[in-house]
């Protein structure tokens, strides 16, 4: 281990202790951001809040771009290169959900607090954190709250930024509120799709022996489950949600399945997609129904090697915090950064529970380790310890 | 009367958005040498107190030092209210431990009253602990009018802004007890006070010079008594009110509101007695005063409601004739 990295690691315990003083500011940001509903494509109010925080902290180049990303620059002492620090600003919850957070002595509970109000709050609080820790960087930090990340958003915010950004970006750090110890440095190949089954209004129920859209969709699922999926390289088909019908005794004429295919293997996602299309074609033909596959989002697989200096630095940082790295490939902002050859990792800030449920919650105290880890990583990047 | 009320509504009714620049407020406060204390009276508020403390400490003490002092004064919670409050660094007090020589009475008014002794500020801001959507505006909106204008001594919060409204003009007003009890009473006896849109709201900021001179009912009547006493001594000009948009809190049952109304009515009648108004009732007004709002502009709606009475039917000759009633 280099002396420079050792020096970064040795400061982690001191930083952790000093960060306690930022508790109210960090938590207040998480609470106030968390109570602003922010479904995908409706992130404006959260991004405005973030922009106001940037203004209050005297940052430079504060702006909201055409895609709705909010960003600002913490100027470096040299400012020749830039480190992108980003967190997605959208949540899976609609505006009609009660976004009130409740605060206990050790935890905070509320929809989206871990995914990703806390992550966004870390971006909003980072200028004050660096001020209190008396840390300056040679590089500029580009702080960004990303719009249109989840679901149908399909990483629209980060894509727009990377398509149009003219600043040379040395590295990227993506922040998620949960889980502490997470270390993502590879992007999964991914296809996010919807299968919709439509039974025609003039359907001949007696001829085909079917009982509506549900059994047809069910047989599609059964057939998909029979597809051979390799254990290595890791590949999975996830069934995320299913919707159909309104009552007990009325046969539904439509049904909808949302799913994702994820794989570390190049070409595997496309291969499975072809097989699913074959299944759909076969079942549609045999049941006189209309079955469609809509692709909502796609990602290419890729990633940093295990021995990349940024990954090595992160492992050392987590080790210093007595945390076991939880290696988890990402389908988030990280995948876009990696696809554009920007070395990047995704990390988590604290322990969380019931992710994407109404009773989602986070532990407060581990957050300071999470923030200390972020600061140490930024220092490592700034000192060139993460360059290949 | 209506002119005076409408003038007051123009000059002394604010929206919290007018005071968005907290840094400016802090500077004005410092220039005027004012100290501001915040009191949160509590009784079993473990679910909401933590968030209030985190947000107020972060935004109004650390980020912008508008509040000089911040205390939770508790009536004897049996839940973890004090533990949660203390865990986020709030100064917590049991009302019973403040001024022990005067004894301990149970009620929110007791906490508010003892706060005057415990806290040192020139202005004391009171904010209820049961607000789910707490935000710095719950303090800045009601303290700002006092910082800006020395004539204003008592600023009340009110809550308007429905999330959606189909036409430009909307009915505006207080909660059920305000509309069913307080507004009719004020319309009858103190018409100028009907200009307060939500006289019972639990969020208000008051100058010490006022607080130390008025008595405090310890129960439901504390807000009503304040308004009547401040009005009697300093007039309508001493009041201001600020729209803080939405307030989300737990709803009370009709039974609970009945108890509250009973307490308020006692306070109100006691005030009529002490002002010498019971034996010398003023001519009862027949004008009932409500509000309508359009955007940020509020105006009173006045309606004449005359409770005309018919005599007993038996005194009507035609009735007596029809039914053969002779005597």
Structural account:
- The complex is a heterodimer of chains A (388) and B (327).
- Chain A is α+β, with helices and mostly antiparallel strands and 388 residues long.
- Chain A is built from 12 helices and 18 strands.
- Chain A has 2 domains: 3-187 and 301-382, Aminopeptidase, CATH 3.40.630.10; 189-299, Alpha-Beta Plaits (2-Layer Sandwich), CATH 3.30.70.
- Helices cover 36% and strands 26% of the residues of chain A.
- In chain A, the strands form 4 sheets. Chain A has an 8-stranded mixed sheet with strand order 1-2-6-3-7-16-8-15, with helices on both faces. A 4-stranded antiparallel sheet of chain A has the order 4-5-18-17, with no helix packed on it. In chain A, strands 11-12-10-13 form a 4-stranded antiparallel sheet, covered by helices on one side.
- In chain A, a hairpin with a 5-residue loop joins strand 1 (60-64) and strand 2.
- In chain A, helix 4 (44-56) packs parallel to helix 5 (113-132) and helix 8 (213-225) packs antiparallel against helix 9 (268-287).
- Chain A starts with a helix and ends in a 6-residue tail after the last helix.
- In chain B, 39% of the residues lie in helices and 18% in strands.
- In chain B, the strands form 2 sheets. An 8-stranded mixed sheet of chain B has the order 1-9-6-8-5-2-3-4, sandwiched between helices. In chain B, strands 7-10-11 form a 3-stranded antiparallel sheet, with helices on one face.
- In chain B, strand 3, helix 4 and strand 4 (91-94) form a beta-alpha-beta unit.
- In chain B, helix 9 runs parallel beside helix 10 (254-274).
- Chains A and B meet through helix 3 and strand 4 of A and helix 3 and helix 4 of B.
Supply database-style keywords:
heterodimer, A: 388 residues, alpha+beta, Aminopeptidase, Alpha-Beta Plaits, 2 domains, B: 327 residues, 8-stranded mixed β-sheet, 11 helices, 11 strands, globular
Separation of the first and last Cα atoms of chain B = 49 Å
Please count the helical segments of chain A: 12
CATH superfamily of chain B: Spore Coat Polysaccharide Biosynthesis Protein SpsA, Chain A
% residues in beta strands of chain A: 25-35%
Quaternary structure annotation: heterodimer
Secondary-structure arrangement, i.e. CATH architecture of the largest domain in chain A = 3-Layer(aba) Sandwich
Q: How many domain modules of chain B?
A: 1
- Text of the CATH class of the largest domain in chain A: Alpha Beta
Shape of chain B: globular
Question: pLDDT below 50 for ≥5 consecutive residues: which ranges of chain A?
Answer: none
Strands of chain A, count: 18
Radius of gyration of chain A: 23 Å
Largest interface: A-B, 16 and 22 residues
Which sheet architecture does the biggest sheet of chain B show?
A: 8 strands, mixed
Structural class of chain A: alpha+beta
- How many distinct folded domains of chain A? 2
Estimate the mean pLDDT confidence of chain B: 90
Spell the H/E element sequence of chain A.
HHHHEEEEEHEHEEEEHHEEHEEHEHEEEH
